[in-house]
Amino acid sequence: MHLKSLTLKGFKSFASATTFAFEPGVTAVVGPNGSGKSNVVDGLAWVMGEQGAKSLRGGHMTDVIFAGTSGRAPLGRAEVSLTIDNTDGALPIEFTEVTISRTLFRNGGSEYAINGQSCRLLDVQELLSDSGIGREMHVIVGQGQLDAILHATADDRRGFIEEAAGVLKHRKRKEKALRKLDAMEGNLTRVTDLVTELRRQLKPLGKQAEVARRATVIQADARDAAIRLMADELHGLETTLQAEVADETALRARRAVVESDVARLTERENELARLGQEEAPLLARAQQSWFQLSAVRERLLGSASLATDRMRRNTEDDADSGPDPDELDAQAKQVRAEEFHWRERVDADRGALASAISARQGAEDALAAEGRRVAGEARAAADRRESLARLGGQVGAAQSRLEARTNELERLSVQRDDAVERGRQAQVEFQTLESQVAGLDEGELGLDTQYEVIQRELADIDVRVESLREQERESQRQRAALQARVDALSMSQSHGDGADTVLAQGEQLGVLGTVSSLVRVTVGAERAVAAVLGPLAEAVVVRDVQSALDSLILLRSREVGRATLVVSSPKAAATPHGAAPAGSRWVQELVSGPAEVLTGLQHVWFNTVIVADLGAAQQVLAINPNLVVVTEDGDLLGGQIATGGSGSGPTLLEIQAAIDEAQHSLAEVNHTLERTRFALSVAQKEQEDTEQQAQTALARLHDSDARLAAVAEQLGHWGQQARSAIAEAERLGVSAHSAEQARAADETTLRELQEQLRAVADERVVELEDHQHELSTVAEQVRQQEMESRLAVRTGEERIQALAAQAESLERAARAERSARQRAAERREQRRREAEVATDVLAGVEIALAHLDESLRGAEVERGQRERNHSERDSELLALRQSLRELVSELDRLTDSVHRDEVARTEQRLRIEQLHLRCVDDFGLEPHELVAEYGPEQMVPPTPLAPGDEEPEVPRQPYPYVRAEQLARLKTAERGLALLGRVNPLALEEYAALEERLLFLTEQVEDLRRSRADLMAIVKDVDERIEQVFTEAYHDTAGHFSEVFGRLFPGGEGRLILTDPDNMLTTGIEVEARPPGKKVKRLSLLSGGERSLTAVAFLIALFKARPSPFYVLDEVEAALDDVNLGRLIDAINELRDTSQLIVITHQKRTMEIADALYGVSMRGDGVSQVVGQRLRERESA
Predict the structure, then answer these.
(1) Which of 338, 840, 903, 1138 has its CA at 20 to 30 Å from residue 30's CA atom?
(2) What's the rounded Cα separation, in Å, for the pair 56 and 1006?
(3) Which among 897, 961, 1018, 790 has a CA at the least distance from the CA of 225?
(4) How far is 144 from 1027, CA to CA, in rounded Å?
(5) Rounded to whole angstroms, how far apart are CA atoms 890 and 883?
């Protein structure tokens, strides 16, 4: 495993995407101060999960994002990607190349990814932890890191070694187990307390459950009796109600008939009144028409008389032709006198009309008032009847309450005496049991001790069993992992289609196997031997040449590809001549296997030696150019050929060696698993026996506890009984006092209601007097008088108008006569013409009078007819109202009767509804179901037996219903319930639930104890593992520190000392350093360079003790002189053989040992740029 590349984009001074390609060996990063070299180290630490902004030389994490320069805008995010070569499988992931990416946005958001898949920081840390790269990242030695190591405490130095040794994951596991253990202890304590409390509660609850079962039987019997009594009562009430409803139906039918007649007569009355109102204007109009026609006739008669007079005057002489003006004036005065007489008469008639109108209004008002009075008195009478019924119901209810109060007082008195007696008996029983408790505690001590000893033995056995189970599971996991590794390695041994076809034929073609499976190579030389064999490492070994020919013929015939074949030889393999050159070994000495196979391959590795590296290979070739030299890394050098390089995967020989090693480990794990299973079976048998003993001891302890708990329960029961009886007596006394007060209040209320009832009943009912008929007659008479007065006034007015016209005519005639006499001569012709006109007028008046007389006769007939109709209608209306009054009186009597019946039936229905509600509320039965199933006609089943009762010899049979027997049965059941005392109705369910919960919690306690033992075993295993891993790592680091310190300080002495050697789990580590020529050992007394070199010695010792795939050193040699720098470079050269190093340096000598060199510089715009060069390739070129 090594780092392949690092890409920085937007990270600190690397604004643009910049990629560093790392190679195995030493990579140096150089550049002037401030160019951004250390940002490379920060990028490596950041992408691998560094969370401290100060560790990255910043104040806030967003400071790692490129902040911009004067010529370039800031970026919104920083992104770093690290690619790791994982061909050796060092990382626990199924990829040969792993890319870890981290992105930070300006808003603070952060993202991690592994091979492009989003992940968490914890996933990255867990991926790198097994490779020696922890959260503290000791593999990255930044600027100031050396000083931090020097000033570190003993515990901090321990942390460096733990991280390098991979202890972190074990500590995480231990911390997780301890957290679970703490939570489990709390849960165990709570569950144990619950179990103890439940056991204490279970015994009294069992007794309550027994009482509840007996009470259930008695309650069922009482319920059956109560249901049958209620069904009997409900059936009787419903039967009575049906009979009363039939009577009510007849009354209602008669009332409906009367109401129909009243409605019909009322409608006829309203119709007659309406017709009277409609005919009144017509009658008035007919009378008015007659009077008007009479007035017109009078005017026509006056006109005829005037025309006759004019004709008579016109026919006379001038002296006697006209009337005398004085006579005309006299006639006019006579007419005026008659007019005055008529005016007086009309004024009198108008006064009479006003009186008639006033009388008519008074009569109508009196009639309306009388109607309202009659209706009000009828309503008052109905209200009195309703009030009387309501007060009667209230009196009955008050009497019922008073009786109930009296019964309740009697019941409370009896219950109080009973409670006092129960309290006295409970006190006596309590004192008796107290004297028995003292002797029951002595038998508990020995049982408790025995049970505790067995429990401790069982806990030890449980721990041992769990440890063996953990070992079994671990062995199974190891076996599965090794089997998977063998399978995976076997699958990776792909020989090609042709070779696989030949191998499939086996003995038929004389195939012995593959070279990689038949040849065994010394550990560590697999890559070198694979380089020497080349393609022959995948070749198939056959018995002879004929087998090779048959195989080739088979491949060609099937066209399945090509294959390399090695023909075995029975001859003995030749040995190389002479000893191998210094620093090398013959390859033939490093391989083993069948002799015929080795002989067949002899030509391949003959005169081939193996050396450590290319430098040694160069020296061997310089001594003997005829040899072929191969390095341990697989580089092959000869006189004419040279192959090698890096990046190749594992060879078949390495894979075969890994398969052999995995199979050997698998066999050992199988043996270990068998031994563990045998030990586990023995421990489990012992565990079962011990558990049986524990169960037996626990049962005896439970029996003892049960006996003691039974006595204690009885004590508690009788004590509670005494306290309950005393409290109940006190409560009943208070209730009796309250009931007494309530009874007194009810008595007062009853007296008040009875007085109100007597007062209402004593009120004299006044018989209603109806004067509507008389008032209606008076009103009709007054209206008739009003109409006659109106007609007289209208006739007088018309007569006055006619007389006024006649008087005016006479006066005009007198004036005209006088004028005519003066102009007699001139008007003779005019009088002649007037005579003619008068004649025509007289003829016209006669005709008009004829027609008018006919009209007048018609008006007279119509007037008489309407007056007769009006008189007949008034007579019918009077008779109708008399019948209506009789029907209304009958309707009132029927309504009163129906109302009384309705009140009685309403009360009965209320009782039935109350019974219905009680059916549903008390028994959960519908009324029809109650009567159908429990009615008086149904047979009564026998009373069920209570728990503990003996079965009668003769089976009991159902019997007919008798109310008295059921009442006695109900009272017997109630007495039985009273004798049982207070019953907990939920005791049965609570007992079952409590018993089930106790069983569940007992199992939970056992589970928690087993889990606690498991966690304790895990903690113990982790502590042992941590102690083992840390001890090994410490001793390795201490040994390497003494060695490295001696090399860095020739003649000096340095060592690591444990602060608490007896406790390897918590001990710290101190550093003693004595440079040559000095006696001081404390680090604080050393010079700056000596302190830095001491810190470097500690880090290199740590690197050697627990190598990591790579290390990053940031100017660690800055404080060293040239001599100490050389010593440090030597140490780095030693590390490069096993680890990859990335060094930030300013020293030329450090640059010279680098395999690759990267130069970092700062451009004018403040952005770092990189130039790289591979030094080893250039030198080889």
Answers:
(1) 1138
(2) 52
(3) 961
(4) 31
(5) 11
3-state secondary structure 743-771: HHHHHHHHHHHHHHHHHHHHCCCCCCCCC
* 583 pLDDT higher than 80: no
Q: Is 849 within 8 Å of 315 (Cβ atoms)?
A: no
Q: Is residue 50 within 8 Å of 110, Cβ to Cβ?
A: no
Distances 582 to 220, 578, 775 between C-alpha atoms, Å? 111, 12, 165
pTM of model > 0.70 = no
Q: Are 313 and 816 a contacting pair, CB within 8 Å? A: no
Cβ count near 552 (within 10 Å): 15
Pairing of strands 628-631, 636-637: antiparallel
pLDDT on residue 765: 43
| Distance in angstroms (rounded) separating the CA atoms of residues 309 and 838 | 9
Query: Are 209 and 947 contacting, i.e. CB atoms less than 8 angstroms apart?
Result: no
Residue among 665, 818, 713 nearest 329 (CA): 818
The count of other CB atoms within 10 Å of the CB of residue 92 is 12
Q: Quick one: residue 709, left, alpha or beta (phi over 0 = left, psi -120 to 50 = alpha)?
A: alpha
3-state secondary structure of 44: helix
Mean pLDDT for the stretch of residues 526-553: 78
Are 1172 and 21 in contact by the 8 Å Cβ rule? The answer is yes
Integer Cα distance of 402 and 413 in angstroms? 17
pLDDT computed for residue 964 by the predictor = 81
- Please state, in angstroms and rounded to a whole number, the distance separating the CA atoms of residues 118 and 100: 10
Please report, rounded to a whole number, the percentage of residues in the chain having pLDDT higher than 70: 83
Give the pLDDT of residue 766.
44
Structure tokens at 46: 């950041």
Chain Cα centroid distance, residue 345:
104
**Statement: residue 616 has pLDDT above 90:** no
Q: Residue 214: count other Cβ atoms within 10 Å of its Cβ.
A: 17
Strand partners, 1070: 1057
Cβ atoms within 10 Å, residue 1006: 11
Yes or no: say if 251 and 873 are a contact pair by the CB < 8 Å rule. no
Q: How far apart are CA 627 and CA 621, in angstroms?
A: 7
**pLDDT, the chain, mean:** 76
Q: What is the pLDDT of residues 349-389, one digit of tens each?
A: 788 878 878 887 877 777 777 777 776 776 676 666 666 66
Dist CA 476 CA 473 (whole Å): 5
Residue 1181, pLDDT > 50, answer no
Distance of CA 401 to the CA centre of its chain: 52
Residues facing residue 1161 across a β-bridge: 1169
| E-only strand ranges, 392-530 | 511-514, 520-521
Q: Which candidate, 1030, 1102, 1109, places its Cα nearest to that of 128?
A: 1109
Which pairing describes strands 1140-1144 and 1110-1114: parallel, antiparallel, or unpaired?
A: parallel
Q: How far is CA 244 from CA 142, 172, 248, 904, in A?
A: 112, 92, 6, 9
d(CA 1069, CA 1030): 12
Buried b (16+ CB within 10 A) or exposed e, 348-360: ebbebbeebbebb
Contacts of 1043 (CB under 8 A, 6+ apart): 1101
pLDDT at 768: 44
Nearest Cα to Cα of residue 138 among 1147, 1110, 1148: 1110
Helix 987-1048 vs helix 1122-1135: crossing angle, to nearest 10: 130
Q: What is the Cα–Cα distance from 852 to 37, expressed in whole angstroms?
A: 148
Q: What is the mean pLDDT of residues 1035-1063?
A: 84
DSSP H or E stretch at residue 549: helix 545-558
Report residue 145 as tokens.
């890191």
- DSSP, collapsed to helix, strand or coil, labels residue 240 as helix
The residues, any chain, with a CB within 8 Å of residue 983's CB and separated by 6 or more, are 208, 211, 212, 215, 977
The span from the CA of 620 to the CA of 633, in Å, is 16
